[in-house]
Structures are given as C-alpha cells and as structure tokens.
Design a protein that fits this description.
About 75% of the residues lie in helices and about 0% in strands. The protein is mainly α. The protein has a domain of about 170 residues: MetI-like (MetI-like fold, Orthogonal Bundle), CATH 1.10.3720.10.
C-alpha cells in the first residue's frame, strides 16, 4: 500500500511543480496578451482595462493562487483570444480530436510493432530480421511532419483516399470521421512503430542468447513454443516501460501532424494560443500534457508492481 501512496503523492507533487514553473515561465516571456488582442494602435487606457478584466494587473503570486484554486475545480479561466469562451469549454471541444488521433495511433502501434518485432527477431540474422531492421531505422529517422506530407501525397493526392486539409466532425458523420483520421494516425504511428520494433527485437535477441533458451531448445521444444512460453514473457517487462513512454508521447499531442492535416485539435490550439499570448489556454494545455505523461508513467509503475511484486 505504501508503494501506491508514494506514487500518487509523487504524481500530485510533480503536477503542482509543473503548474507553478510553467505559470512563472509565462510571466517572463516577452509580449503582452492585451496588446496581442487589441493591437498596437489601442490606447493605454483600453490595454489597462483589458489587463484588469483578466487579472493581469495583480501580483504574480496572487494570480497563481487564484488560478490554482480554479484549476483544482476544473476552471482554468477565460480565453483572451476566443472572447466569451472559457478555457475548459475550448479545450473540451478540441480534446476529443486529439484523443481520437492518439487512440487510433496507439492501436496501430500495438497491432503492428509487437508481432513484427517478435516474429522478425525469432530468427536473428535472417532475411526478415535484416529487412525489418533497415526499414525501422529508415522510418525512425524521418521526421513526423515529413511522414505526414508523404501520407498526404500518396493517399490524399495520388490515391484520392481522403481530401487533404478537410475534416469531418465525429458528430456529423462517424464513418467519414474515422476514414479521415486513420491517415493522421498512420503518420503518427509510423516512427513510433519503427522505434518499438527495434526495441522489441533487441530485447528478444537478448533472451535468445540466454542459457535457459538453449536448454529449452535442447530438450526438444520447437521455436514457436520457446518464443511464447519463455522469450515473450521475459522480454515484455522492459518493453512495457518503453511502450508506456511511447503512449505518453502520443497522448501528449502530435502538434506537427495536426498542423499538416489541419485537424482542430489540441496541437493547433496550443500553437495559436502561444502566438496570441493566450496564456490561460497555454497553461491548461501544458498541464494536460504533463498530466498525460505522468499518468501513463504511474499506470506503467502499477503494472510493473502487479507483474513483479519485487519492484
């Protein structure tokens, strides 16, 4: 029980530190949110009135405490750029797009990388092993936005499988929504699949070199039986941690992919909010990213503890 309490307390303390540091960091960044909204031609009186309306004229410490109290209850204040819309409402309208993209990407990563990594490493040095390793290294080296452009070129322009730059909300047409979202998900998943395949292959090859594998084969066990009964179980512990990091990275948002495919998700909202000094929105998104990463790490630690109580 102490293990779980320590992990939860560490999670909450880290979230608090991230919130405090990011809040302070935004206070020293150059630029003025009021000027960004009203323009450089605005009168000093109008700028001061807007700053007072959003509380920017108060001391930093007082503003942080007020913001933190609201954040605990799910209230992140009002957006300055999107006038009259709360940050919670704004993020709530964008979050389903990002979560859908992340969920589809994670499913693709799991369905492709684990079997490919396991099967191609079953015969080290073979043709499948060498080809998969070369392909994984190639795809891992390609930046995600380049992958997105290639997917758009091949599937959007050449094959006409979707309309580049278009988007259909889930509420409007679920079928068209998923048929469009699969291509950004592929763009996000490809480099992550490459990374996971390489890592999985390395762990499986380590197990193949162990004495207990040679003993199992010497006793007459076939390769298939050794892989599923021995290698897979012993290889999965470090792979679980690695996949947790991949999941956290995907959940944290694929900003470039959302830009390439013109998706109205958290990534585009973050970029636009930073450009317009909409710090309430930026602060909330930073907190979401931190919470996503920390929550996945917490879940991975708990899974480790369940699988191996010695942890």
């Amino acid at each position: 029980m102490n293990f779980y309490i320590r992990k939860i307390v560490s999670f909450l303390l880290t979230i608090f530190c991230v919130a405090m540091l990011s809040f302070l960091m935004f206070q020293v960044l150059p630029g003025d949110a009021a000027i960004a909204k009203l323009g450089t031609e605005a009168t000093p009186e109008a700028i001061e009135a807007l700053r007072a309306e959003y509380g920017y004229d108060r001391p930093v410490g007082e503003r942080f405490v007020t913001w933190l109290k609201g954040a605990v209850h799910g209230d992140f204040g009002m957006s300055m750029r999107y006038e009259g819309i709360s940050v919670t409402e704004l993020i709530g309208s964008r979050l389903p797009v990002t979560l859908s993209l992340a969920g589809m990407s994670i499913v693709l990563i799991a369905l492709v990388s684990l079997p490919v990594g396991l099967l191609t490493a079953a015969r080290p040095g073979g043709t499948a092993d060498r080809v998969s390793e070369a392909a994984a290294i190639t795809f891992m080296a390609i930046p995600s936005f380049v992958t997105g452009l290639l997917v758009t070129l091949i599937f959007g322009i050449w094959l006409k499988a979707f309309t580049p730059g278009g988007y259909v909300p889930l509420s409007e047409n679920a079928g068209r929504f998923f048929s469009f979202m699969i291509f950004p998900a592929i763009s996000v998943a490809i480099p992550k699949i490459a990374m996971t395949v390489l890592y999985m292959k390395a762990r499986v090859k380590e197990q193949h070199a162990c004495d207990y594998i040679r003993t199992a084969r010497a006793k007459g066990n076939n390769l298939h039986g050794v892989m599923w009964k021995h290698v897979l179980g012993n290889s999965m512990m470090p792979v679980i941690t690695f996949i947790g990091l991949i999941v956290a990275e995907v959940l944290a948002g694929s900003i470039m992919i959302e830009q390439v495919f013109n998706l109205p998700g958290m990534g585009r909202l973050l970029v636009n909010s930073i450009a317009n000094r909409d710090f309430n929105v930026v602060q909330a998104i930073v907190l979401y990213i931190a919470a996503s990463v920390l929550l996945v790490n917490l879940i991975v630690d708990i899974i480790y503890k369940v699988i191996d109580p010695r942890v």
